[in-house]
Amino acid sequence: MMQESGTETKSNGSAIQNGSSGSNHLLQCASLREGRSNGETPAADAGAAELVHVQQQQEQALQVARQLLLQQQQQQQVSGLKSPKRNDKQPALQVPVSVAMMTPQVITPQQMQQILQQQVLSPQQLQVLLQQQQALMLQQQQLQEFYKKQQEQLQLQLLQQQHAGKQPKEQPQVATQQLAFQQQLLQMQQLQQQHLLSLQRQGLLTIQPGQPALPLQPLAQGMIPTELQQLWKEVTSAHSAEETTGSNHSSLDLTTTCVSSSAPSKTSLIMNPHASTNGQLSVHAPKRESLSHEEHPHSHPLYGHGVCKWPGCEAVCEDFQSFLKHLNSEHALDDRSTAQCRVQMQVVQQLELQLAKDKERLQAMMTHLHVKSTEPKAAPQPLNLVSSVTLSKSASEASPQSLPHTPTTPTAPITPVTQGPSVITTTSMHTVGPIRRRYSDKYNVPISSDIAQNQEFYKNAEVRPPFTYASLIRQAILESPEKQLTLNEIYNWFTRMFAYFRRNAATWKNAVRHNLSLHKCFVRVENVKGAVWTVDEVEFQKRRPQKISGNPSLIKNMQSSHAYCTPLNAALQASMAENSIPLYTTASMGNPTLGNLASAIREELNGAMEHTNSNESDSSPGRSPMQAVHPVHVKEEPLDPEEAEGPLSLVTTANHSPDFDHDRDYEDEPVNEDME
DNA sequence: GGCTGACTAAACAGCT
DNA sequence: CAGCTGTTTAGTCAGC
Question: Where is the composition biased (Acidic residues) (predicted)?
Answer without folding.
Answer: 666-676
